[in-house]
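Question:
When you can, review this sequence-structure pair and walk me through the tokens.
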Amino acid sequence: MHYYIYGMKKALMYFALGTVLSFLINYFFYSSDNIVLDLYYALAFGIAWGIAYYLDTPHFTLPQKLGISFAVMGVLVVIGTLLFSLELAIPSILKFSTVFVAYYLIASFRGNKSLRN
């Protein structure tokens, strides 16, 4: 049980750091006129890092990891479509999937295939 709580805390830390860093980079270097959209994209980025870290354990099978990531992308699209439009929601899943794939690509170069250890 302690392992899951510790993993969740670290996943929340990855989420928070990813969100804040992504927002600051977008805000200061790309500075769009829609700060809410920038925050939405930053949340997608942070959620991707948090979910990827949380799922980076042998307790989840590959189909479970893929299913959860697709479900989160679906939620991002629905929320983005409700808040903005479908055209503005699509980049959030591109950011999410890029980060998710990058996380596991980086992990694949390690001997234990995980970034947790």
